[in-house]
Structure prediction request, 222 residues.
Amino acid sequence: MVRRVKRLVAAVTGALIATACSLALVGAAPARAAGSTAPKPPPAGVDITGDRLGQPLRLRPDTHPAEVVAVIDQVSWLGSTGQQRGPAADSLGPKYTIVVLAGDAPRSTYDLYPLAKGGPRVYRPARQPGATRAKAGWFFGRLNMSETLRTAGVPLERQFDTVTGGVGGGERVIPEDSLDPARDIDEVLGELQRLLLLNVGVMLVITFGLAGIALLIRHRTH
Prediction:
């Protein structure tokens, strides 16, 4: 009797364990399937409109990967809060609006002023594509904003003073014709010669002055 009860308990326990394992496998299969078929986020793109652009510049990662990354880098670092009051309108220069895309859907928009007095500026409007909203604000832009937009196709003149660099910094590019060691040495030697002549002149004036004073004292003592 005891053996039968033990066998019955073992059989029931085994059946329960098998059922639980089956349910777990059935539940895990859809989860794995859903995880494997989860859509990848669509690639980012950028549309640029603004001064002297007859039609929008449409940059996509399959045709302009470097330009897309560089333009998005101009605004990807912005904080949550910017300055509420911007520069005077007449000091901003040309305006270029960029729209960052997720696939073909607009995700965010910004106004860029690469030639603003005092350095490039970025304005983030409160009204964003779709139903999203952001806190409006002004930000100082990266120093290479003008060159980044020019490389992307915006009709801007090349800026030689800043080609790369972030906020508050940049790598200064010196034109080749200004790097002339021989001319610099000649200028240094010329300055040194003028300094020596000036010192000699001062010494002569002091010497003649002392000689005159000594002669005057000698005449008075005799």
